[in-house]
């Protein structure tokens, strides 16, 4: 019996791994870890921009896992994922699990002012309406987003993977974990535990990251003479990480390592990070990073094994507690 099938009594369960077009490299790596082949599909765009997807193999009664990364253009890939889910449900797939390593619209998780949407909730509603039974995601912008989806959400953490890299590359270093703002203090506390009980610091005023004078006050905690590990869930424009690096160096840090799970790297982010004095930028491949956005300090760790483990446990009705704790 192949890794993609399992007999339960008189019923044989089938795992079918499907992927959208946003991140084919990561999809192939996950399939390799699972020991399965990607489900063949036909996909194209009509002349007016509409997306079409058809699966070229029967999915009736299967346990379908749909992988998609939320990279640019986000709306295109989001709609393609919804269309894939709809196609699978209409073709009688028994269960559909969507794997979104980077949850789209995750930053729009609450109303800051009047007349604003809660787009993260809207995305969850769209997936539920399309027929999604379960969601697997990695390092949500805020954990509360899990509650937007009316069904199981497996919220995986990449911090242990990133922390292991820091421990291996900087053994014996005097490390301080730094939150780029007060809202990331709890994340810094988790990181401090993963690195063996390190002290934490945080940047009190975000405006200090963008001043011409990087020596301006705004850091709470001891960073002088220490290797500062700045932690966040994502790097988008790179302005926060670049500003934090300059500020910490101006306050006497011996070096700065920036780390985040999702390397969105919009616009001139790569150039901004390469020129800010940071020693290393450590991220995962939850979103594809094209060659033009690579820079010398960038280190990309694979998330494929973590996602494959989660898919395997969900298929086997096992436990993923060790992946989410």
For the structure shown, list the relevant keywords:
single chain, 325 residues, alpha/beta, Rossmann fold, 7-stranded mixed sheet, 6-stranded mixed sheet, 29% helix
User: Roughly what is the average pLDDT, rounded to an integer?
Assistant: 93
Q: What's the alpha carbon Rg, rounded to whole Å?
A: 21 Å
Helix content: 25-40%
Number of domains: 2
* CATH architecture name of the largest domain: 3-Layer(aba) Sandwich
What coarse outline follows from CA principal-axis ratios? globular
The H/E string reads EEHEEEHEHEEHEHEEEHEHEEHH
Task: Give the structural class.
Answer: alpha/beta
Number of strands: 15
Order of neighbouring strands in the sheet with most strands = 11-10-9-12-13-14-15
Q: At the third CATH level, what is the topology name of the largest domain?
A: Rossmann fold
Query: Total number of helical segments?
Result: 9
Beta-strand proportion: 15-25%
Low-confidence stretches: none
Main sheet specs: 7 strands, mixed
